[in-house]
Design goal:
The chain is of the alpha/beta class. It has one domain: Nucleoside Triphosphate Pyrophosphohydrolase (Alpha-Beta Complex). The strands form two sheets. The protein has a five-stranded mixed beta sheet with strand order 1-5-6-2-4. Strands 3-7 form a two-stranded antiparallel sheet. The chain is globular. The two termini are 28 Å apart.
Length: 190
């Protein structure tokens, strides 16, 4: 199988082994440590004990604009990867559940391994992996390009029922982007 064929098979069909992506020159690996105060640290540790990680998805249109969720602040949409779940399937599910629009996962852009530690004790830490996928609408989404809306039946651990959630297309990083996601938005805007 050619490298490009393997890339497409991995990106679009299935992704269960993040370490297998280390040998691919087109996927960036980023490792970092972030210190948190006790309450935030405990909340995130509890969350990551029940999931394998998180996905973020840069859905772009034909004009190169990226879909963001917000508004306070704006960030790429994403979701949890349930224990044992395929990462690419989790990316598709997260976007399709949020928007009600089918997407095609176009590629893996980056794998991030973030170690969260306590501000007061750097030895107390845990791993929070995430994968950033690029994606595009699977077919012409009709009015979705002009007026992206949250799916009517949304019931999601991150977004709730979608009542206070907005979607919008951006062709540049918005001023009120989440500070932790500015580089992700830039990555998707290419």
């Amino acid at each position: 199988m050619t490298d490009e064929a393997e890339r497409q098979r991995t990106d679009r069909a299935s992704l269960t082994d993040l370490e297998a992506l280390r040998t691919r020159g087109d996927v960036e690996f980023l490792e970092r440590t972030r210190a948190l105060e006790q309450r935030k640290f405990e909340a995130l540790r509890k969350r990551y004990q029940s999931i394998d990680g998180v996905v973020q998805v840069g859905v772009t249109d034909d004009d190169g604009a990226v879909l963001l969720v917000g508004p306070d602040p704006w960030a790429p949409p994403g979701g949890n990867v349930d224990a044992g779940e395929d990462w690419a399937a989790a990316a598709r599910r997260a976007i399709e559940d949020l928007t009600g629009v089918a997407v095609t996962v176009d590629g893996v852009e980056r794998v991030e391994k973030t170690y969260f530690c306590l501000e007061s004790d750097e030895d107390s830490r845990f791993l929070a992996p995430s994968v950033l996928f690029s994606a595009s609408p699977a077919e012409e989404p009709g009015d979705f390009r002009a007026d992206p809306t949250v799916a009517a039946d949304l019931d999601d651990p991150l977004y709730g029922d979608g009542e206070d959630v907005e979607l919008a297309w951006f062709d540049e990083v918005p001023e009120d982007a989440h500070p932790n996601h500015v580089d992700h938005i830039e990555l998707f805007l290419g």
